[in-house]
Every structure is written in structure tokens, then in C-alpha cells.
Amino acid sequence: MQYKQYENLVFIRLDEGEDLIESIKKICRELRTSAAVIISGLGQLQKVKIGYYREKDNYTPMEYKERFELLSMTGTIIKHDNEYKPHLHVVLGREDKKTVGGHLLGGTIGVTGEIILQLSRIEIKRKYNPGTGLQEMTFI
Questions:
Q1: 20 to 30 Å CA-CA from 6: which of 117, 130, 134, 140?
Q2: Using CA of residue 83, residue 127, residue 107, residue 60, what is the dihedral sign?
Q3: Band of residue 140 on the pLDDT scale cut at 50, 70, 90
Q4: How far apart are CA 15 and CA 52, in angstroms?
Q5: How far apart are CA 106 and CA 2, in angstroms?
Q6: pLDDT tens, 23-64?
Q7: Where along the chain do its domains lie?
């Protein structure tokens, strides 16, 4: 993993075998940010786990062993209770040019990953909403 920061932008290059989510959380910890937004994410993913929100408190997870092109990744990473909580969505391309997408629950880099983060000093937390069953963004 390599990254370079300029002001509030961070350019990241991840290598094959690195855990995408854990790598992003590690960088956020090192840079001591309170929140970050993923501006861009592309590359290749393998061993992917995607969730699809069906109803209150219920994400249906799907696991894939194949390699995918990471066509798009967006989301937020928020520091809450001293831990970084990512909320990431992806669109992944298959070799046959069909796509899959959803809430990224896990994934390992295949070949390379390129991510651009924008850091924020806005104080944001996650708060459980019993109506949706989700940990939703709330502002302090």
C-alpha cells in the first residue's frame, strides 16, 4: 500500500492481496481524520462480499470468489466511538461484461486498486434508526 496526501486529498494505491476496507480504515487512522469521502475507486477485486438491503436490520450477503473489475466505488468513512465505520457501495464488472453491485462488505485487491479520498473535519456520527434498522449519518 502506498498513499500520498495533498491538503485534503489522498491518493491511494493498493496491491494484490490487500484487504480493501481494512486498508482504507488504516489510512484514516494514520491521518487522524474524523470523516472521509471516497471520490473514486477503481482497479480489480477478488473474494468479494456484497450486501443488498432488503428490509429493516437485514442485509442479504452474496459472496463471490471470481475476479471483478472495480468499475466504481463511492461512500463514506466516519469515525464513530473511536472506530472507523465505512459505508461503501460498488459496481463490479465481470469478464462477460455484466455487472454486480451493492453495499461492499469485504473484498481483496486483485492486481491493483486506486482510490482517491477527500478528508473532512466535519463532525459526523452514526446513529441507529429503529425505523430503518440502519446506522445513519447524524451531524454534531
A1: 140
A2: positive
A3: confident
A4: 27
A5: 20
A6: 999 999 999 999 999 999 999 999 999 999 877 767 789 999
A7: 2-139
